[in-house]
């Protein structure tokens, strides 16, 4: 529309002609009831208008019509047919005292076209800029004009974070930008590629994934050599400590939590190891362990023995004081009403708690246990240090107690072993049984054999042959037939006592066999 003349806003009945360019005070511009846009502009859009006008002025003058009263007389005000967003932006600047309420606004008068139709035309016959063009335009402003994210945001009414996102997208590899313009790449896919600014890596992943490019796969491929900020190692060390050590962070500009990835994995692992080692040394010095170690991964603790805390012996005075303090503590808590504890009661609870803590724990490791055991500090799955106390190495395990086998049994073992050499000898390559286990097995075998004799007729009291039983290479029974069964090392009982004693006798000797339970229980 070509401007025909420039006039001052009328204050009398004379109205400007169609196409005239007039200067109207801001407070005399009003919203037109014929505007086709009924849904108001969003606050973000109005903010963008205000920022643009403040930085560059009103680039496109609003189109207005003269307001008339019921008799058709001009009121001196103008209705904004096209440019309501610009009017709202100017009002926002006036509200912030950036301009006056009477700020002069250059406008174009339309006195011939239907106001509703041209408002509809203005909103329909236009096409928004492609986002790729916008991204590259922001990138050009940063490169050619030297504007930072804050300056660009201030000039266009957007946040600096949004500007950084657009600058990152504008710096994408040309192949990716071309695919995005052609519709072969969606915006969320482009954002996943732009997690990293490495264009060579972007091209490589773009070619490797082919046609199927899920967002999660793109993001994982672009960051596979990095450590996410949610990793347990990062939570343990802290991002601040990592950055203070000179580590670089790749920030994710396209997530709300502002996460990212740590790029120096070697530095991160070194910081984790140093912190775990420091905690282990501190625990060793404070608690008096023989050794302390740090481990990033959870080790196999089955190779270690264990010592456990024992109850702490307290004097009668200390025990009485602890009981009194605990009783007082419980009484204060039980007397609390719906409103909770009073400040005085709460303060008293803190005093009692400190007094109880001064007595130390009820269970603790004995000094001799700490002298041969150690502590291992590991990194848990939640990013917190885990302390495994009371671990005993193999070389620190006490020697087994002396063998309980008697000299008599040892002699019997030697004789029986010579007779049975080669036939019944156990495999020397097998694991040896402990003395305690052999004693238990011997007792159970003896009970079983006695039970068999009382239940079976195949053993005769008149037989003279000797029965032998072997367990792990040890002779546990060596007796004449009919003699009472006994464990190796057991004092021999008389034949009469074993055959017809208080047990009620054995089968084959006239006994009823009912004494077998007493026999087993009495002689084992």
Descriptive overview:
The protein is an alpha/beta fold and 524 residues long. The protein has 20 helices and 17 strands. The strands form five sheets. Strands 1-2-6-4-5-3 form a six-stranded mixed beta sheet. Strands 10-14-15-11 form a four-stranded mixed beta sheet. Strand 14 (374-379) and strand 15 form a beta hairpin. Helix 1 crosses helix 2, helix 9 crosses helix 10 (215-222) and helix 14 runs antiparallel to helix 15. The longest helix has 23 residues, at 265-287. It starts with 5 loop residues before the first strand and ends with a helix. The model is unreliable at 1-9, 419-423 and 457-524 (pLDDT under 50).
Shape: elongated
Question: Could you estimate the helical fraction of the residues in percent?
Answer: 40-55%
Please report which band the strand proportion falls in: under 5%, 5-15%, 15-25%, 25-35%, 35-45% or over 45%: 5-15%
Largest sheet: 6 strands, mixed
Query: What does the average pLDDT come to?
Result: 79
Taking Cα atoms only, what radius of gyration do you get, to the nearest Å? 47 Å
Strand order of the largest sheet: 1-2-6-4-5-3
Low-confidence stretches: 1-9, 419-423, 457-524
Number of strands: 17
Number of helices: 20
End-to-end gap:
119 Å
